[in-house]
Here is the input.
Amino acid sequence: MRLDVPVAFVIALVCLAALLCILVGVRVGMLIGRLKAERGFADRLADGRSDAVKRSRATLGGQFLEQLAPYLPDFPAEPTEVRFIGKPVDFVAFRGASAGAVERVTFIEVKSGGSKLSTVERTLRDAIESGRVDWVEYRVPGADAD
Here is the structure.
């Protein structure tokens, strides 16, 4: 007994089976990918948290050293003659102010470890070194001196 099955039907059946295999393969691949990602997420999260703690400690340590710097050896100015600004430069020193006459104004940036100047700090340094520094006296309007 022989069945006469049209060729088009067989081709359609094979294509449907191939499509089903592809869909199953994609689904299995997605599940495997999700499992791998979930396993790696815990490790990446722990590494990220550890890195954040290290950076936070470095930042806090640097800020502490900035405040303490005028009292450390070899600081380029007397502690009584410096004023903390913080941004974009850490200190401004008014050399000679403790004797009653400012002889020189010095901008001081404190760095620790391997930290580098930021873009703003570099441009400020360049402006100071090239002499692009001004003095401006501003009088508050309506505040008449009697």
Q: What stands out?
A: The chain has a mean pLDDT of 87. Strands lie at 82-84, 91-95, 104-108.
